[in-house]
Amino acid sequence: MRTYIAPLGYDSARVTRPILSQGIERETHIELLVPTSSTDDNRSEQAIGDVRRMVEQVEPEIDLQKTAVPHDDFETAIGLCGSLIDEADGEVVVIFGGGARDIFLPLTVAALSRTDQIHSSYQFSDIDGEVRERTLPDLTANAPAQAQSTLETISKLDTPVSLTTITDAANVSKSTITRHVKLLERQGLVTSETHGKTKVVELTTTGKLLISRQK
């Protein structure tokens, strides 16, 4: 099962294109976020109807719901968006790129505080109309104390960087660096790949943001 959570404005394509690009199954649930009040309620209802008609052409038994998010109460809006993510069933997919900015920001804050609950996220581009997957950084992540120095060493090197280079720069044993890299990977701060006999490590966006906060 998959649950899509998406703010909706007057352009239904900003929601339907990302959803259709990922496919719709029988048990798919779509949660459309709209402001509690709109300058044009008729166009808003038309957009919801357009989304419903489009997805029902693929799967007639689709479950589509509308949730009104308060546009004038930022904290309440964040809480509501967070609750929708917490209570969603199956794979949670968040779509960014449509709807009022008053909803977009609370949804973004809620999503960034729950990256471990979100399977994937997509953005509809205002520039070229393309749908792109976005990996959300975990703003709550921290490096394990014993691996902090290794994270700092990696951040000072040109990445991707080999374990050997990290070991030389840190002046500790390779087994220690290997253990630290595994800890950092679990926290989503680095990724690693093996190229032949060489293992290379690279900072993730989450890792880069953590380093920048610590400066």
Automatic annotation (TrEMBL):
<dbReference type="InterPro" id="IPR036388">
    <property type="entry name" value="WH-like_DNA-bd_sf"/>
</dbReference>
<dbReference type="InterPro" id="IPR036390">
    <property type="entry name" value="WH_DNA-bd_sf"/>
</dbReference>
<dbReference type="InterPro" id="IPR054588">
    <property type="entry name" value="Csa3_N"/>
</dbReference>
<dbReference type="Pfam" id="PF22662">
    <property type="entry name" value="Csa3_N"/>
</dbReference>
<feature type="domain" description="HTH marR-type">
    <location>
        <begin position="151"/>
        <end position="196"/>
    </location>
</feature>
<dbReference type="InterPro" id="IPR010163">
    <property type="entry name" value="Csa3"/>
</dbReference>
<dbReference type="InterPro" id="IPR000835">
    <property type="entry name" value="HTH_MarR-typ"/>
</dbReference>
<feature type="domain" description="Csa3 N-terminal">
    <location>
        <begin position="2"/>
        <end position="116"/>
    </location>
</feature>
<protein>
    <submittedName>
        <fullName>CRISPR-associated CARF protein Csa3</fullName>
    </submittedName>
</protein>
<dbReference type="InterPro" id="IPR011991">
    <property type="entry name" value="ArsR-like_HTH"/>
</dbReference>
<dbReference type="Pfam" id="PF12802">
    <property type="entry name" value="MarR_2"/>
</dbReference>
